[in-house]
Amino acid sequence: MYNLPEFPSTPDSFAKKVQQAVKEGMEGENMGKRGNSKIVTNGWKKKAAAAAITLTLIGAGGLTVYAVANSAVKARMEHMPQEEKTELIDEAYASGEEGSSYSRELRDEEKERFYELRVKYQTEETFPEGELKRIEAKEDAGEDRLCYLPETREFFLPERELTDEEMLQIIDWQTKSSYALTEDYEKNHPEEVTAREEEKEKAKQTLEEAGGLDENGAREKASQWLGALYGKTEENMEVSAYVDTNGTGTPENPVYEITFDIAGVEMYNFSLNAFDGELCGVAYSGQEVQMGEMSVSDLESKVDSLKETAEKYLRDSFGISGNYKETYYSYSIGEGKDTVIMNMVTFQFMMEDDTVYIITLDGKSGILELFKSRSMEEYQRSLEADKELREKGVATYEAVKKIIE
Description:
Blueprint: H1 12-28, H2 46-59, H3 71-78, H4 82-94, E1 101-102, H5 108-123, E2 147-149, E3 154-156, H6 164-188, H7 190-209, H8 215-230, E4 238-244, E5 255-262, E6 266-273, E7 279-285, E8 294-295, H9 296-317, E9 324-333, E10 339-340, E11 344-351, E12 355-362, E13 368-375, H10 376-391, E14 398-403
Parallel strand pairs: 1-3
Antiparallel strand pairs: 2-3, 4-5, 5-6, 6-7, 7-13, 8-10, 9-11, 9-14, 11-12, 12-13
Helix pairs in contact: 1-2, 1-10, 2-6, 2-7, 4-6, 5-6
């Protein structure tokens, strides 16, 4: 089985928490997980689902569901019959599988069309004409049609290329599932949502009283970084902002998290010091990093040039200079595979002052996926956390970490 094209259909706050989880993992030895027979994505085991929904709604301080930002999409979600919502929720909680999967890998051309169609779904009211076909057993899957088996959360794809209608049916299912799960959490956990909203407002008030950066100022600075690093503007982007005191930030050192989102398929996240606007971190997820898998040998052959790219980001984009005590690079390999998970390679630059600068690049394009700085103490803690995950069997991928002479 193969992974879904994970252009986020989940709430934007969840996407930010996912990015946070990815950040933490990539700091040491890129986090990722693959099963022996399939790559699982969009996972919702019963307990994991509840935890993920909690993160979705209260972890990042918001209830904004990007999928309903467009009025037509919102109307489509709000008119969903309760029976359909219940079915989606029950499927997510009852499934023994860790996530949804495809019966075959998507071709690059299909991935490109998925990207385009998701944008059209969100912005141009391009919806499917029919519904996703559900089956009760694997044997019911036809050879030339798209169908979905709820019990195992598998999408059975025809060997031919998927049609636009079939892709739209999958996108519609993802969006509806996200909406139903979000609504269910909000209904059943109002006290947690309220508490997080109160915490969020308190953080904003405290920041204002201390003379910190206001939201507009933070957004303006993040927009400047968006242009400088990626050559993008805010045009046609959904922008969200909140003050974080329980993730990247702390009550003593709050951080603005600013996210620019293109129809849920590209996200640019900037973490800024809430007092002076200094850049604390960058995370990117989008179409450029979704195209095909990269072999380990191909990545290794590009390490020198990718290191130069990482150093250029440090020097020219972030204004960081000084000597390195040591430089490492790391990546993760899927079980039983000779390919690099998500094509990510992370460089760790150990500076003379014991600051560790972490830069993750896409191995194919060199695009910046992550930037963050850590003290040596924080960095060592992240390595210990990664080690603990391995000992518990949570992290089952093979991690490779090498020093650059």
